[in-house]
Design brief:
Largest sheet: 11 strands, antiparallel
Structural class: alpha+beta
Radius of gyration: 36 Å
Strand content: 15-25%
Helix content: 25-40%
Shape: flat
Distance between the termini: 62 Å
Number of helices: 19
Length: 715
């Protein structure tokens, strides 16, 4: 489903405007891997494998694949460049059928010369861009308005009419931008995608292009008909116009049909269960055959992945993203993994498709061993993994085309040892004499509550009697539920979340660790149920909630100030996920628990991500105003950054933190110290200037910023 969405979205967004330079849209399959060209490389120089991407530690149940990819993206060295789509021209043209010649010219003449670029931004968003130029004249390629105009000219006595008409007033030029918002992967498994075709008359999403294209075709029609009226003999003009309009209508009808199909897809609803991916493909091919489509989808995901077009695109992606073999995942491996997914449940409604399936747990033996001692209240006899993919293309008729969300979890098959203890019933009979002439007997049997241990208790029975004048008996009995001895009690976590107190903090981009003091009172709430299934009915025997303080166990995963900082982040602000033993912590609403951090360059007073003479000058000016003019530190603004508007604002405090580079040996100034607790003076200005001098010298090219600062401040 993911491949289908991306193929159609990108093909529509890129191909329609291009083909319109020949006055016709076309449908072509562009490999998903083209979108993923700037792919991830594994952090710490380890090759990223499919196994590492799907790995879940034995003591955890939720995959952190998104963090793996996010960290890998941060390590990509080739963060911008050009994509060569020349190798795909023939493949795309073949998929265009009767319009292959027109498509080939469009690609080679109106796209490739302009270049197709990719960029991985500082926040790890992946941006693909391509420009489309607008022709002044059209050629007579099959199925295009150009062919229609040529036919009319030849038929009505004006050979070469197409060469006498220019279409420079019909502007189909623009820039297509595909943005894959991989920045979200740091805190989420959802990957939003936006597709924009920006023209002189507005911006359009992929699903809006058929309607936009129809408007352009009608503009072309108006220009062509004007020429027909001028060039064709008066007695033949009406017939020529009618003939031309009939041919143009065939084109606009196809665009209307494409627009209607998009609307239909957004309203379509269907669900089904499938043994595997091959079964889904088989059903799709059967439906294509019913509609007399000759082309068929390859029978398996492996067949798709090893298709020549896909293989070429994937190889190019690897050359760009992992020139030294940092990614050890082949297209064939991806296909084989898709084929291994079984027991698939798929649904589509309102432009949102969801598929859930299972696959083998590669770490199953380690999982069973981890729970073997029963210390968690149960043991594990089996485990498998479940993958859920949600593709949302409900926004295809806007620039924000949609998103892909992939969640991978481990499912534990548990068993609990059942122990039954029985308390012998004791009976006490007491007889007393009373003036009341009524004998009353109360018998009460308590219900049995079953958890992992079953206790059955019957209370004592007391009978009180008087004379035999009359006797009445009142009996109250509650139900007794006994659990069969041969059933397996399982424990399931219903919900797990944390509550915590957090605070923001300032960091230098040379630091290698975030401060855990930002997070306090981290309480893990785990709601669970215990029960068993018998005769198809689930019996819940216990519900409860465990509460545990896990403050001491929190961490920030692999994130550090140095690998989180991005020079192009002009706000210096980042949200860093907080981890526990089982992965990213989430709150009661399911949102990731994060802390806010501000990371900057040491000595950067004016907050432009560079420490230089300008910063030294601003520190010196601040020192002069506060030391010789008798003004307080909160009466004077230190930083001249546009982010700073008051002497006591957050960014002013941040600038003071970055500027306070020099401390006397007996002074300890923490990151949380306020501006009035810092000493900003000529020493700081001098050290910033000295750093800038060294950083600008070729002699220090081999040294890091941290090494230069350490050298300066050690003197």
């Amino acid at each position: 489903m993911k491949n289908s969405l991306f193929k159609r979205a990108i093909a529509t967004a890129a191909a329609v405007p291009l083909a319109l330079t020949q006055c016709l849209t076309y449908a072509s399959a562009v490999s998903t891997d083209m979108i993923e060209a700037p792919a991830a490389v594994q952090a710490e120089n380890d090759a990223l494998t499919l196994e590492s991407l799907l790995y879940i530690p034995a003591d955890q149940t939720v995959s952190k694949w998104n963090m793996t990819v996010s960290n890998s993206l941060s390590a990509v060295q080739n963060r911008e460049g050009n994509l060569d789509i020349t190798p795909y021209v023939e493949d795309i043209a073949k998929n265009a059928g009767a319009y292959s010649d027109a498509v080939k010219v469009v690609l080679t003449k109106y796209i490739i010369p302009n270049g197709v670029t990719y960029e991985i931004t500082g926040s790890n968003d992946i941006i693909l861009k391509g420009k489309v130029t607008s022709p002044k004249q059209y050629d007579a390629y099959k199925g295009t308005p150009g062919e229609a105009l040529k036919n009319v000219g030849d038929k009505y006595g004006v050979p070469g009419l197409i060469n006498q008409v220019t279409f420079e007033d019909v502007d189909v030029s623009g820039e297509i931008t595909v943005t894959i918002k991989a920045s979200e992967l740091g805190t989420s498994t959802k990957l939003p995608v936006s597709i924009e075709y920006k023209t002189a008359d507005g911006s359009y999403g992929a699903g809006q292009l058929p309607a936009w294209a129809k408007g352009k075709v009608l503009e072309i029609q108006a220009v062509a008909e004007k020429a027909i009226k001028e060039k064709v003999a008066a007695d033949k003009v009406d017939a020529a116009i009618a003939d031309y309009e009939a041919q143009i209508k065939k084109i606009t009808d196809k665009l209307d049909k494409a627009d209607a199909k998009i609307d239909s897809a957004l309203k379509y609803s269907q669900s089904g269960d499938y043994a595997n991916v091959a079964a889904i493909i088989a059903e799709a091919n059967a439906k294509l055959a019913e509609k007399n489509f000759k082309k068929q989808i390859p029978a398996t995901a492996t067949d798709i992945a090893t298709n020549a077009t896909v293989a070429k695109a994937y190889d190019q992606a690897m050359k760009i993203a992992a020139p030294n073999g940092e990614i050890a995942i082949t297209a064939a491996e991806l296909g084989a993994f898709a084929d291994s997914i079984k027991d698939i449940t798929a649904s589509l409604a309102g432009g949102v498709g969801t598929g859930t399936g299972t696959f083998d747990d590669a770490e199953k033996d380690a999982v069973i061993a981890y729970y073997a001692d029963g210390s968690k209240g149960f043991t594990v006899k089996d485990s498998y993994k479940q993958i859920k993919a949600t593709v949302d293309f409900s926004g295809i008729k806007s620039v924000d085309a949609g998103s892909v969300d992939v969640q991978i979890e481990r499912v534990l098959v548990t068993e609990t040892t059942t122990t039954t203890s029985t308390t012998t019933t004791s009976t006490t009979t007491t007889t007393t004499t009373s003036t009341d002439t009524t004998t009353s007997t109360d018998t009460t049997t308590t219900s049995t509550e079953t958890t992992t241990s079953t206790d059955t208790t019957t209370t004592s029975t007391e009978t009180t009697s008087t004379d035999t004048t009359s006797t009445s008996t009142d009996t109250t009995t509650t139900s007794t539920t006994s659990m069969p001895a041969d059933v397996t009690v399982t424990t399931s976590v219903v919900k797990s979340y944390v509550t915590a107190d957090t605070d923001y903090a300032f960091y230098l981009n040379t630091e290698e660790e975030f401060d855990k003091a930002q997070v306090s009172n981290v309480i893990l709430h785990t709601s669970y149920v215990e029960g068993y299934t018998i005769d198809g009915q689930t019996i819940i025997t216990k519900e409860g909630e465990d509460i545990k303080d896990i403050t001491a166990d929190i961490n920030f995963g692999s994130a550090t100030p140095s690998n989180t900082y991005k020079q192009d982040n002009t706000t210096f602000k980042y949200s860093v996920p907080v981890y526990g033993a089982d992965g990213v912590l989430t709150d009661n609403e399911g949102k990731n628990l994060t802390v806010t951090v501000y990371i900057g360059v040491k000595g950067d007073t004016n907050l432009d991500s560079v420490a230089n003479a300008v910063d030294a000058s601003q520190v010196l000016a601040f020192y002069a105003k506060t030391s010789t003019q008798g003004r307080g530190v909160y009466d004077v603004i230190l930083s001249e950054s546009n982010l700073v508007s008051t002497p006591d604002g957050l960014y002013e405090e941040f600038a003071a933190f970055l500027s306070d580079v020099h401390h006397d040996s007996d002074k300890i100034v923490g990151r949380d110290a306020k501006k009035d607790a810092r000493v900003l003076n000529a020493n700081d200005a001098s050290n910033i200037l000295a750093y800038y001098s060294r950083r600008s010298s070729a002699q220090y090219n081999g040294k890091t910023d941290k090494e230069i600062w350490d050298e300066l401040l050690s003197k």
